[in-house]
Amino acid sequence: MSIFNRLFKVGQAEAHAALDKFENPIKMTEQGIRDLKKDLQNAMTSLAEVKAIALRTRREAENHKKRVADYERKAMMLLQKMQNGELDQAEAERLATEALNAKEQASQEAIKTAQEADRHEQMASQLQVNVNKIKSTITTYENDLVTLKARAKTATATKKINQQIASMDSSGTIAMLEKMKQKVEEDESLAEAYGEMAAIDRSVDDEINVALESGGKPVTPSVHLLELKEKMGIS
Predict the structure, then answer these.
(1) How far is CA 80 from its chain centroid?
(2) Which pLDDT tens digit goes with each residue over 43-78?
(3) How many separate domains does the chain show?
(4) Which of 217, 221, 214, 216 is nearest to 235 (CA)?
(5) With the CA atoms of 219, 222, 227 and 232 taken in that order, what torsion angle do they form, in degrees rounded to the nearest 10?
(6) In this structure, are residues 101 and 41 in contact, taking their beta carbons and an 8 Å threshold?
(7) How many helices (H) and strands (E) does the chain have?
(8) Does 132 share its domain with 183?
(9) What is the pTM of this model?
(10) Domain residues for 198?
(11) How big is the chain by its Cα radius of gyration, in Å?
């Protein structure tokens, strides 16, 4: 492959990539459906015109067949009049011959118009197939468009959520929680230390007052305390 062909392939790939970025598949599908509907309208118009021509041509062919039968009937009537002596033989045969010539001409016209009617009917049938195909394609594209819109909506939502998850700094959050935990533990330890210091610094009067208010902690009574309680009659 020459260098020019390689450059062309690279440029072509880049162009396709650019189109993929800028073209909206939903809008393209909607435009395609609109174009197909225009084609359908044109095809239906053509179908109606061809059917009208076919019907008109078929009626002409039937009329020519009726003329064929009519001229033959007239030729027979002329010969009957001649046979009955109501019409001169030469005149009757001349007119009967003219009627038969007209019959032949009408027969040729009937064949010709019948063939034309057949061609137009075939064209109408082919156009009907094309119309049905366009209708089916439009239905398929419309169904695909509904699915495409739903998928696009889901993809957009999923993309947004994934972007949010990807942008989350999980390591930073964990580090922050660890710092908070350490700080709380330090504060708890410091509070406990201050409590112990406060207990050490309390005077005997403070302890007595605390005991009177809350009952204090149960302790092993001293000998002097027991003697005093016995003197006061306290069990």
Answers:
(1) 78
(2) 999 999 999 999 999 999 999 999 999 999 999 999
(3) 2
(4) 221
(5) -30
(6) no
(7) 6, 0
(8) no
(9) 0.52
(10) 174-231
(11) 55
